[in-house]
Design goal:
It is a single chain. This protein is an all-alpha fold. The chain has helices spanning about 5-20, 30-45, 55-70, 80-95, 100-115, 115-130, 135-150. It is globular, with a radius of gyration of 16 Å. The N and C termini lie far apart (about 50 Å).
């Protein structure tokens, strides 16, 4: 495994850890929370300018960046612009990526940002093709994540209207 893919997978894991911090009942300490947030933003920023050498690596990198920027509370003033650029990269990747768990993960996290109905439909179409009797942990987790996003849309989407 090359170092860029490894770094992208490590960022995905760190973002996932931060997004689910404390959900297992363990206490959250402010110094740990602050440190993890700063580390995640630094890791995300350090990978931002890279491009994957193939479609799979680019998909993993884009997923890691979107997860990383979403998980951290910190912003150096350019996080939203970077997230938008990553979403644009994801849209290009999605056109080339075959139906897979990785594609569903990209569709899910991207849908959570833009609420584009076609992304939701495509994610469900791929999920519906999976054998429900042999789902992996990762498949069950992303199904739950997608359901959570659908049931709890972005909290500010209805404000101001």
């Amino acid at each position: 495994m090359n170092s860029l893919l490894l770094r992208a997978l490590e960022l995905q894991e760190a973002a996932h850890k931060l997004m689910h911090l404390g959900t297992d009942g363990t206490p959250i300490y402010s110094d740990d929370f602050s440190r993890l947030n700063k580390e995640l933003l630094l890791k995300s920023d350090s990978l931002y300018s890279f491009k994957g050498s193939d479609i799979d690596e680019e998909a993993h990198l884009c997923l890691a960046l979107l997860m990383g920027y979403n998980a951290t509370i910190y912003d150096n003033g350019d996080k939203e612009q970077k997230k938008q650029a990553v979403i644009e990269r994801i849209c290009e990747v999605l056109e080339q990526l075959p139906a897979s768990l990785l594609k569903v993960r990209l569709l899910t996290y991207c849908y959570g940002e833009v609420y584009e109905e076609s992304m939701l439909q495509e994610a469900h179409s791929i999920i519906d093709s999976w054998d429900k009797n042999t789902l992996t942990f990762d498949q069950m987790e992303i199904i739950g994540e997608l359901k959570n996003i659908e049931e709890n849309p972005y909290p500010f989407e209805g404000i101001g209207g």
